[in-house]
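Hi C.,

You asked whether I'd gotten around to modeling the 129-residue construct. I have! Everything is below, sequence then structure, no commentary in between.
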Amino acid sequence: MQVSWDLIERIAKFGIVGGFCFVIDFSITYYLKEKSKVYKFVANASGFIVSVIINFMLNKYWTFKASNIDATTQFIKFITIASFALMINSVIIYLLNVKIRMNFYLSKIIAVFIVMFFNYSMQALFTFN
């Protein structure tokens, strides 16, 4: 199987955007949970939602260069997939943090990396194809 340079570049850009948005997500979650004393799953969802909006814009215009497609339809697809990703993310955090008693932030890091593979595949296939 031959992999094109375009695919490698797109995956690398997706990773860079993902890393940037991870920092945003983690920072918001930490601030809300630790400083504002917001319930951990509300803080997690808040960080996730803000990072998803930024993620959409960066991936649309930089990673996939999909500026010629209707942004509203694309955003609805993106948010739908991201909502499933948030559910998977929350379940993983719940299982690791609440059931296994792993540190909340370590649980979040693991969840983010697992969900990243689902998110890239679905966004590439359905949102930015």
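If it helps when you're writing up: Residues 5-35 form the longest helix (31 residues).

Thanks,
B.
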